[in-house]
Amino acid sequence: MIAKFRDCFIPDKGSGQAVTSPVLSNVKKSLNITLYIFKLLPMEPQALLPIDIKQETGEVNYYKNVPLSIVNDHIVRLSVMTEPFYWHYHPNSDETFLVLEGVLCIDLEDRTIELAPSQLITIPANIMHRTRPKYNRSVNITFERENIQTVKSDI
After folding, report:
1. Which pLDDT score, from 0 to 100, does residue 29 have?
2. Closest by Cα among 32, 34, 45, 8 to 147
3. Residue 53: DSSP 8-state
4. Within a domain: residue 4?
5. Cα Rg of the chain, angstroms
6. What gap in Å lies between CA 1 and CA 24, rounded to an integer?
7. Among 132, 73, 82, 144, CA closest to 107
8. CA nearest neighbour of 64 among 55, 74, 54, 56
9. Alpha carbons 34 and 36: distance in angstroms, whole number
10. Is residue 90 part of a domain?
11. Residue 146 β-bridge partners
12. Residue 143 lies in a domain
């Protein structure tokens, strides 16, 4: 079984399948801005096995966001983007994007950055941005704090 919650998936401890386990702990709304704070349940340590990115993304033609690994206090996510993500910023974390396939556009308030496969960029904390695929889809790795806060904006 795979469940979806705010485009956030984490592995089920028992079955190895992805299910939703974050708990929305605080929602604050003011002036068209919403703060989402997610608490992710700890990921179970896995045997030292490689993760096959092509197998995870294959013929996926819908938005998919899967945590791959926890590294100290950061999380590594795999994302298949097929549509724009909303405008937002992260007050407590930088966010690093590495493109594996397609072209990822990162819209900033004053310009757009395009990343091709094997290109990487870090968006500093508190910078308003929106990510989207330039064409039908992009496949990306994202590195961010495990307890990242996302503040949504209706720009």
Report:
1. 36
2. 8
3. H
4. no
5. 15
6. 21
7. 132
8. 56
9. 6
10. yes
11. none
12. yes
Q: Which amino acid is at 64?
A: K
Please count the structural domains in the chain.
Answer: 1
**Which tokens hold the place of 102?**
């397609």
Predicted confidence (pLDDT) per residue in 103-146, tens digit:
999 999 999 999 999 999 999 999 999 999 999 999 999 999 99
Residue 1 lies in a domain: no
Domain that holds residue 86: 10-153
- Which structure tokens are listed for 88? 């937002």
Residue 155 three-state SS: coil
Q: Where are the beta strands (DSSP E) in the chain?
A: 10-11, 18-19, 23-30, 33-39, 64-71, 74-81, 88-89, 95-101, 104-108, 112-115, 120-123, 129-133, 138-145, 149-153
Q: Which two tokens stand for residue 93?
A: 């974390």
Question: 50-75: per-residue pLDDT in tens?
Answer: 889 999 999 899 999 999 999 999 99
Residue 128's CB is within 10 A of a number of other CB atoms, namely: 16
